[in-house]
Amino acid sequence: MPVPKVIHQPRTQQALKRGISTLVNAIAPTLGPTPRPSIARNQGKFELLDDGGLIARRIIALPEQEDDVGAMLLRQVLWAVHQHVGDGAATTAVLYEKIYSEGLRYIAAGADPMRLRVRLMELLPIVSQRLLAAARPLRGEAELKALAFSVCYDEEMAEVLGEVIDTIGQYGQVDVRAGHGRGLEYTYVEGSYWRGGAQSKEMLRGFQRGVAELQDAAILVTDMEIEEPRELVPLMSLALRRGIANLLLVVASISETGLSVVLDKRLRDKIQTIVVKIDAYHPGDLSIAQADIALLTGARPLLQKAGESLEQVRESDFGEARWVWADDKNFGFASGKGDPRQLREGVRSLRKAYASAEDDDDRRRTLERLGRLNGGLATVYVGGIAEDEIRQRKETAERTIRALRRAADLGVIPGGGVALLRGRDWLLAEAEAETDMESRAARLIMAKAAEAPIRQLLENAGYDPSEVLAQLGNCGAAAGFDVMRDEIIDVATAGILDVAQVQVEVLQRAVSSAALALTIDVLVLHREPETMTDP
Question: To the nearest whole number, what is the mean pLDDT of the chain?
Answer without folding.
Answer: 87
